[in-house]
Write a structure and sequence with these properties.
Structural class: alpha/beta
Protein name: AAA+ ATPase domain-containing protein
Distance between the termini: 59 Å
InterPro entries: P-loop_NTPase (IPR027417)
Radius of gyration: 27 Å
Helix content: 40-55%
Strand content: 5-15%
CATH architecture of the largest domain: 3-Layer(aba) Sandwich
Shape: globular
Number of strands: 16
Organism: Plantibacter elymi
Largest sheet: 5 strands, parallel
CATH superfamily of the largest domain: P-loop containing nucleotide triphosphate hydrolases
CATH topology of the largest domain: Rossmann fold
């Protein structure tokens, strides 16, 4: 009898097989763009399924076509890394010592795998490569050509055989230097001119405005598509598909509750379904012949949702709650939560967002209004906390690498807090923060000037932790 593991059905950390949901509208849009554009950018928040979608899309392509999936983290040196990674994907031998590729095309694995042949002087432009191949055989020297030439030659041969070529770069924003990103886009131009398609995945707002595409002559050939948070019905389909595979059933109200707490993220929905089956109902595996069972709701709903945590998201919550080391003691205010707590300005911002339901986007003016109502401060007294500048500083902190964010800014000796205006202190902190090299991170972003600033949370897991773990905010402030 076939045994089905619950963890093989609900897979928060892997590409889903059973619970994959077809986002037909997005699939149709990409299919149309593939006919019209050479460069396609997928932007949007973290953990919304961009990577899963693209991997599924690539996997669905005919086996006779060729595609490469590259991680942005592996392309820090720009075009040089791009050519080496593409050479590896094409199974072109390269030398670690010299960085050169083997000029003998009989060693290029992609041709055998796709059952392709090249023609000297043909449409693929094989004259130069064939000459170098002959030289390779004559001299015995294996590695004689640069990877750029080898990759370009191989891909042109594939295209000359009427095969489709797709190059996908995930986390493109992790190529920190925009000039390096620019070099990658320019390097891909000859390939797109030959009919290859390039995908770029980015988890930062405004990824469609990436300066890497400036002065690359890609205008009219590029389209940006925002991958939106999943709809409630799409998230519910994950549960219904998975429960059906396990011969289980659950009330629609329970499934809706799980989907409502997933912040539009299929990853969170997968995890909640898995935890519900295993931790709350003791269902770790099922046999195909088992009688259908009902999946019961958690005995303690709040405890169940609090049980899901994520180390990285929790670390960011601690970082934002502590912020930087101030030059003077930071003001702390009696906040009427249950039980009452003392919070500084940074904690006030985070706790207010928590009480507002942890929205993925919120105006700083609304956060300030919420804090003022809770503290019962008039406008003059509320302005002294400098919540607008503190919000902007949170955005600067979020733009750091996590290890850099954990490093305290140098503190100066200062006076104890006496409820003076905190604005000057926050302006100083802002100048210190922007002086450091920023690395875009998919956690939180603040756009706009003080009065019009808007906080956008890019990581659904961070939104989830902000909602269900407010104790971290209280415990992580500067003492």
């Amino acid at each position: 009898m076939a045994i089905i593991q619950t963890s093989d059905v609900f897979t928060p950390a892997e590409l889903p097989k059973v619970t994959d949901v077809d986002r037909s509208k997005l699939t149709h849009e990409i299919a149309q763009l593939m006919k019209r554009k050479s460069y396609i950018s997928l932007t949007g928040g973290s953990k919304l399924g961009k990577t899963t979608f693209l991997k599924s899309y690539l996997a669905a392509q005919p086996a006779t076509d060729w595609s490469a999936y590259l991680a942005g983290q592996s392309l820090a040196n720009g075009a040089a890394d791009l050519w080496l990674k593409l050479a590896q994907a094409l199974e072109i031998p390269t030398s670690k010592e010299t960085g050169l590729a083997n000029g003998d095309k009989t060693t290029w694995g992609v041709f055998a795998r796709l059952s392709l042949k090249w023609v000297t002087g043909g449409a693929a432009g094989g004259v130069k490569a064939d000459r170098e191949e002959n030289e390779t055989r004559t001299t015995g020297e294996k590695f004689t050509i640069d990877p750029e030439h080898a990759v370009t030659e191989a891909l042109k041969v594939i295209r000359a055989n009427d095969r489709r070529v797709i190059i996908a770069i995930d986390d493109f924003h992790f190529v920190q230097d925009h000039s390096k990103r620019h070099d990658i886009v320019v390097a891909l131009r000859p390939l797109t001119d030959a009919g290859c398609k390039a995908f770029f995945l980015s988890t930062v707002l405004g990824g469609d405005q990436d300066p890497a595409f400036n002065n690359t002559n890609t205008g009219g050939r590029r389209k940006s598509v925002e991958v939106l948070a999943w709809e409630l019905d799409e998230l519910k389909e994950i549960a219904t598909k998975g429960f059906k595979e396990l011969n289980l059933w659950a009330d629609d109200a329970l499934i809706t509750d799980l989907a409502s707490e997933s912040f539009g993220s299929p990853q969170i929905m997968q995890q909640l379904c898995l935890d519900l089956c295993e931790n709350e109902n003791g269902i770790y595996e099922r046999e195909a012949e088992d009688q259908q069972l009902q999946v019961n709701a958690p005995a303690d709903r709040d405890a169940f949702f609090r049980s899901l945590d994520d180390d990285e998201a929790i670390d960011w919550l601690k970082i934002f709650s502590a912020a930087y080391v101030p030059r003077r003691e930071r003001g702390r205010y009696d906040y009427p939560s249950s039980p009452p707590v003392k919070l500084d300005g940074y904690q006030l911002i985070l706790y207010a967002i928590h009480e507002m339901g942890s929205p993925t986007q919120v105006a700083v003016a609304d956060v300030k209004r919420h804090v003022g109502d809770k503290l019962k401060f008039d406008t003059k007294r509320l302005n002294k906390i400098a919540l607008e500048q503190k919000s902007i500083n949170l955005g600067e902190i979020a733009a750091r690498d996590m290890t850099a964010a954990l490093t305290d800014l140098p503190a100066e000796e200062g006076d104890a807090f006496d409820e003076a205006d905190e604005g000057a202190e926050e302006d100083f902190a802002y100048a210190e923060l922007v002086a450091r090299a920023a690395i875009p991170q998919p956690v939180l972003e603040v756009k706009g000037k003080k009065a019009d600033a808007v906080i956008s949370i890019l990581d659904p897991l961070f939104s989830y932790m902000l909602k269900w773990h407010p104790d971290v905010i209280v415990d992580s402030g500067r003492k």
